[in-house]
Model the fold of this input.
Amino acid sequence: AMEAPVQRHRARYKSPGGPPWRDTYRRRCMERLRSSRAKLLDRYRRAGDGACGAAPGALLVQEVMEQEWQELRDRLPGIHGEQPMEQMLEDPDELAVLEEIQQELILQEQSVIEEYERSLRFDEECLNAMLDSLDATDRVICPVCRKNNLTVKAHLVCCQCGLYISTQDMTEGKLRSLLESTLTEHSQRCLHSPEFTVTSGMEEEASLLMSCPV
Done:
């Protein structure tokens, strides 16, 4: 006589649709996990590099399942007053249902973390691209007008102010190095700032001349 309720209890979970609380429980767990995105990412960040020391789904899934199970027990008839979720795991049919839901939640949690990691990588790539762009456009200020950036090409250095000098195999880095070394050499012998002008003779090409009034 005592076995009859147990048989009815087991038959309830072996129905084609599964236990009646499964769909409601799955939906509520998913909703709670989605609404806890900020909490999940905060735990992930605190866990360190990829939470490599934590088991899959160890960040928030178990907590979500336990919280929703507590609420479900008080809402649905037939579950109210039953055993806690961890004790329910002794029933193989209920265990299979909970494991199925747990795996779905773990995949959802991992999906959120992967999306977050992709976002971090994208931000890092954008930052690196911006830094590379800054390095590439670390222009040389015209020493004559001291306002505009010089246009430096392999055979030409020019400026909007009128500076126009023919060069050979010139680069911004090489020109910057030449200017810096010349200014450094001058500063070792003189405290005054030199001036730059463009000069050219009748048969000579234009040259950049550094002179000092002292």
About this structure: Residues 151-211 form one domain. The first helix runs from residue 3 to 13.
